[in-house]
From TrEMBL:
One of its GO terms (molecular function) is DNA replication origin binding. Pfam families: Herpes_ori_bp (PF02399). One of its GO terms (biological process) is DNA replication. This is Replication origin-binding protein domain-containing protein. Signal peptide: none annotated.
């Protein structure tokens, strides 16, 4: 995204609200700012890409996007889920479908992403694109060097945690229960100084989250 020229608009289509919010948070300042479709519609009723040239939008709201004559690219996250939204009863589905078709046909570039794309899906995607789509397999595996240990024994887990701390390693310990997080926190305090340990729970939230 950072390499895309300022005069090229970006339409990022996603059905995941969490990803949409994360994109808008990540690109909340600087030369390229991401705008969430719902914030624009709430105040203006329609979306002008001349003004909001990095749009993060759900399929159902594409009908609110005004005609745009400038250059733009389309990015579709989890395209299978987005295509399934075409049968949604939310909003004006027919108008959103027409706008989706128009955006895809006129885009400078199109990037669609999904963990599963079979031949039938590719044929369907090709109906929307001006040229034949080609597949890039993402083989990047950033966590291959990580080690995973599983146990139901809390004492053994704490013992291993203590070993890692004594080895000088940084440790992040996600917990599903607040009581478990507090147990780990108290144990870590028995080894480290108070300013070296942080705990985040519903009562003490991470300041950046």
């Amino acid at each position: 995204i950072k390499s895309i020229p300022d005069n090229v608009a970006i339409v990022f289509i996603s059905h995941r609200k969490a990803l949409s919010l994360e994109l808008c948070r990540r690109y909340s300042h600087g030369r390229r700012i991401a705008y969430l479709y719902s914030d624009i519609i709430a105040t203006e009723g329609s979306i002008d890409l001349n003004r909001y040239n990095f749009l993060v939008c759900q399929f159902e709201s594409l009908s609110k996007v005004l005609t745009f004559d400038g250059p733009y690219i389309v990015i579709v996250d989890e395209v299978n889920s987005v295509l399934n939204q075409m049968t949604s009863t939310c909003g004006d589905t027919h108008a959103s479908h027409r706008r989706f078709m128009n955006l895809m046909k006129r885009a400078e570039k199109i990037l669609v992403m999904d963990g599963f794309l079979d031949d039938d899906r590719l044929k369907l995607i090709n109906q929307y694109t001006p040229t034949k789509a080609y597949v890039i397999h993402n083989t990047y595996q950033p966590l291959r060097s990580h080690q995973y240990l599983f146990t139901s024994d809390k004492k053994q887990a704490l013992k291993h945690l203590g070993l890692l701390i004594k080895q000088g390693k940084n440790v992040v310990c996600p917990c599903t229960l607040k009581s478990d997080a507090e147990l780990v926190y108290e144990y870590a305090l028995s080894i480290l100084e108070k300013d070296e340990v942080q705990i985040y729970t519903r009562d003490k939230r991470w300041p950046n989250g």
